[in-house]
Design brief:
Layout: E1 4-9, H1 13-20, H2 23-30, E2 38-44, E3 51-58, E4 66-72, E5 75-80, E6 84-89, E7 95-100, E8 102-107, E9 112-117, E10 121-125, E11 131-136, E12 141-147, E13 152-157, E14 162-166, E15 174-177
Length: about 180
């Protein structure tokens, strides 16, 4: 069962209470320059309610809301309403990088993510943000899944075609197109 991920404004009463009782979180919150951009992120075990991780992050001022969260090890991927994904360290709350698009698939074993950007474009990144595979599809993406420990990408497009792509081991970027 997947974890639950919660996001609270650091200025909310619930977050303020948690910050007061946790010096590490309070220190992270104090470092936030724009308090309205601060979020307390909590990752909770869905089965027993145990808190797995807590961190305070600062979202960009242009932040339009969350399209989704993904957690892979120590990394938190926050897909936003403005077609980008922000990657944070769950240990420090530091923003590590930004990726174009929203996360549509993630593989825990390999720490790879697949993002969907623009109408027919998808990209696979490793845990360092290095681009492993870039695809231009002939129809809009409807579903993506990383398989076999992140070595294979399976996609379904709007025209009901299923395609499989081998993901290189990270030594070079593969660019592919199935546009006919």
């Amino acid at each position: 069962m997947p974890d639950l991920i919660f996001s609270d404004l650091i200025q909310s009463p619930a977050a303020k209470e948690k910050l007061r009782s946790n010096p590490i979180l309070k220190e992270q919150a104090d470092a936030i320059k724009q308090k309205t951009a601060g979020r307390l992120i909590e990752i909770v075990n869905a089965e027993d309610g145990a808190v797995r991780a807590q961190v305070v992050v600062e979202v960009p001022l242009t932040y339009e809301g969350v399209d989704g969260f993904s957690r892979l090890g120590d990394l938190l991927y926050l897909s936003t309403g403005d077609n980008r994904t922000i990657v944070y360290s769950l240990k420090t709350g530091v923003q590590l990088r930004q990726l174009y698009g929203s996360v549509v698939a993630a593989d825990t074993a390999s720490q790879t993510v697949c993002t969907h950007n623009r109408r027919n474009e998808t990209t696979v990144f490793d845990q360092t943000g290095a681009e492993l595979l870039h695809l231009t599809l002939d129809s809009p993406l409807r579903f993506a899944e990383l398989r076999n420990h992140g070595t294979q990408l399976l996609v379904l497009t709007a025209d009901q075609r299923v395609s499989s792509y081998t993901i290189p081991n990270g030594t070079h970027v593969t660019t592919a197109s199935n546009v006919q």
